[in-house]
Amino acid sequence: MRTTSNPAFKNLPSGGGYANFNYGQGQPAAAGGTFGQAPSAPAQTGRPMTIDDVVTKTAITLAIAVATGVATYVVGGASSVMLALPAAIVGLVIALVIVFRKKVSPGLVIAYSAVEGVFLGGISYLFGVLVAGNPAIIAQAVAGTIGVFAGMLVVYKTGAIRVTPKLTKWIIGAIAGVLVLMLVNLVASFFTEGGLGLRDGGPMAIAFSLLCIGIAAFSFLLDFDAADKMIKSGADAKLAWYVAFGLMVTLVWLYLEILRLLSYFQNN
């Protein structure tokens, strides 16, 4: 498998060795991924992963996130916003456990989806109601996220853009670059109002959000390619939960960037 920008897929074995997992011992027969040990299922089911497995598990994780997100948003006010920060911290911890764990854990993936839903519900209320003063941008952000996801899926399936090693390296480098800029902007904001201006709603902030949306969109191509390689290599069906987690990570990032961008336009 080619390298992917999504940390959820970096922990998978390379070289098409998905079918060669020794699930009983939790050790991959092929070379390990970036983080060393590859995740393994509790027991070999003997059934290879199919596209239906990926679709079903992804639908479950999204449904859980939407349910907890709507519930958090309905709470409204300071309560929903205050839940966002602890939910983000818990979600990050769970994500790290999933990435570094040796076994695929459907329970952890479901827990991550539920916590991320709480986070998204609180953030949606913050940007839609308190910052932009227009809750309609939440539905617009959801529609935009679905549209980008569907569009990139069509692009991948039609082969309009091929996932090459060069493209993969470019996307990974771009993600590393924007993460560094976000960190520098955060640190700078402690000393000067607005930091570098990447999140203050001005022209530079709009351009930066558009850049992040573009990178997140292209990241889907790498996610689809990773999932496709797993299916073709006969990966165990339980690893579909790992694919669902990986897609969820990218979807959350894309939604947040679109929501933030729409809030900028409301305030300009």
TrEMBL record:
Pfam families xrefs: BaxI_1 (PF12811)
InterPro entries (UniProt xref): BaxI_1-like
Coiled-coil residue spans: none
Keywords annotated in UniProt: Membrane, Transmembrane, Transmembrane helix
Domain of life where this protein originates: Bacteria
TM segment ranges: 54-75, 81-100, 107-131, 137-158, 170-192, 204-227, 239-256
Name the record gives this protein: Bax inhibitor-1/YccA family protein
Organism whose genome encodes this protein: Allosaccharopolyspora coralli
